[in-house]
From TrEMBL:
Pfam name, any one: EAL
GO molecular function: cyclic-guanylate-specific phosphodiesterase activity
Location of the EAL domain: 1-237
Protein name (database record): Diguanylate phosphodiesterase
InterPro entries: Cyclic-di-GMP_PDE-like, EAL_dom, EAL_sf
């Protein structure tokens, strides 16, 4: 049996999960948001492969645990004006519409939700998003790869759009890649999308993006941290 087939049989007690937070910084260097990500120490597949194949029960368990961390540290996020993003897919979208979950989210003004690139029906049936509670903020993840393209932003207005890291790296290698990236960011910004660049891993990447109208950058240039480490940090407002 393949690893992906085994994933569908797992329950919460079968796996150890660490939740880590990747930081996003503004052009001025301020921490403006963090993305909650799952790390699996004893599973050999990537998180992307895991979430494409996991059963809905375990998917819900992981989401609820991330929501609990958001609730426990609500005051820190609000006091420091830092957003927290949690990734969702088709199934979790329906969970957000459940009354008890919607009531919890109402209190979490700092929490936003990133629509995963593999959420095919969510991206292709944008009107379904209108069933969400009014205070839910959706971000489009991985713009430039898979289903997350122009069609996705045409059907639903995402206030925040994250440029896929592979797409970013691809443009860096192209002769006119910087002009293309600048035109894309300008187009998105003029249409009221705040742009986050994923995949920033060194100072050269930062220099390449300088002067463009992006909202934030994110990547392994900055160390990912646990929630305990994050809330010990002093954030310059």
């Amino acid at each position: 049996m393949s690893n992906t087939m085994l994933i569908d049989t797992l329950s919460r007690g079968d796996i150890a999960i660490r939740y880590v937070y990747q930081k996003m910084f503004s052009p001025e260097g301020k921490l403006v948001a963090v993305e909650c990500l799952s790390r699996f120490d004893r599973i050999t597949v990537s998180p992307d492969v895991f979430f494409r194949n996991v059963n809905n029960s375990l998917r819900e368990d992981i989401f609820i645990e991330q929501l609990v961390q958001a609730e426990q540290h609500r005051d820190w996020f609000l006091d420091n004006a830092v957003f927290l993003t949690i990734n969702i897919d088709d199934h979790i979208l329906s969970l957000l519409q459940r009354h008890d979950i919607a009531k919890r989210i109402e209190r979490l003004e700092h929490v936003h939700f990133e629509v995963a690139e593999y959420s095919v029906s969510l991206l292709s049936r944008a009107p379904a998003n209108r069933l969400l509670p009014l205070n839910v903020s959706l971000w489009l993840d991985d713009f430039g790869s898979g289903h997350a393209g122009i069609g996705a932003i045409r059907g639903y207005h995402f206030n925040y759009v994250k440029i896929d890291k592979e797409f970013f790296w691809h443009l860096i290698e192209k002769e006119h890649g910087r002009q293309l990236m600048q035109a894309l960011i300008t187009f998105l910004s003029k249409n009221n999308h705040r742009v986050i660049i994923e995949g920033v891993e060194n100072e050269e990447h930062q220099r390449w993006l300088s002067g463009m109208e992006w909202f934030a950058m994110q990547g392994f240039y900055w160390q990912e941290v646990s929630i305990e480490q994050l809330v010990q940090e002093e954030v310059v407002i």
